[in-house]
């Protein structure tokens, strides 16, 4: 019975023979999960290339590099206009992602229990945190562009155009990942609520999308480090 | 032949595993929050004491880098449960990261060399 179809399919419909030429899964893991990890490793290298380029350009212009506490010194909301509060807004964004990582992992755990309502209950705050994060990024970008920092221009505090270029490319690329994660999570919540994964017999899809979501949080740790803390 | 279904065990937890998992995740989120608060606090204190830079900036940067590694270890280990994967799968995930160590060192050196050449070539 080497070509037996996995009786749960693990989210995949093909037989074991089709999916794994050796007739069985090498790590005794679902196909989709292994592939999600390999995608994340390749994505790690994309982000790492950006951040290493940032490091090289920063080293090359070490005497001229702007001070992040000056560049990100305000909260981009009208009621905080003129208040100097370096790092406060971006710390709030960081906590949004940490919080959403926690709700995501709770959703995965509820999936292990086959608890449909639990999965949906924890996916909703995850989606809300993701949307709030993107909205915060929109506010911050608008504020910085309004101040004159764009991918092609620098202000008196950002000093060099390289800073704006790197900032918008890297946080933009990360923001696209968050947006993608929000779309996936919405699909996931709707599918779970419709009983799709109860029919499949397991909630591995929650785990796979969860891996992606944690990766987005993990990348933010380094974006946060490079642009705001160092 | 008895065919073993991949990762069947980890997809269905009993009550005990669930409670254990819930606890370890709670512990992790608290650690991540504390580390982030310390990082941001350190950055703010530094900015208050040295508004124009200088001082022990190198040590602060080293501290921030180490704290970020701590956060990544917790996110990957617990949230992405790398800690509980089988040995060789763990290795296929972690070994590629060795290339990054090379890349970071190589491009830091490269950036330093551009910096040294700046006075000669005036390209930036």
Can you give keywords for this protein?
heterodimer; A: 230 residues; mainly alpha; Four Helix Bundle (Hemerythrin (Met), subunit A); 8 helices; 69% helix; disordered N terminus; B: 124 residues; 2 domains; 0% strand; flat
Commentary on this structure:
The complex is a heterodimer of chains A (230) and B (124). With 230 residues, chain A is mainly α. Chain A has a single domain (30-229), classed as Cytochrome c oxidase, subunit III, four-helix bundle (Four Helix Bundle (Hemerythrin (Met), subunit A), Up-down Bundle). Chain A is built from eight helices and no strands. Chain A has helices spanning 16-19, 31-60, 68-71, 88-112, 116-147, 161-193, 196-200, 204-229. The longest helix of chain A has 33 residues, at 161-193. Chain A is globular and about 60 Å long. The model of chain A is unreliable at 1-12 (pLDDT under 50). Chain B has 124 residues and is mostly helical. Chain B has two domains: 1-84; 86-124. Chain B has helices at residues 8-11, 15-49, 57-79, 87-94, 97-121. In chain B, helix 2 (15-49) packs antiparallel against helix 3. Chain B is flat, with a radius of gyration of 22 Å. The termini of chain B are far apart. Chains A and B meet through helix 2, helix 4 and helix 8 of A and helix 1, helix 2, helix 3, helix 4 and helix 5 of B.
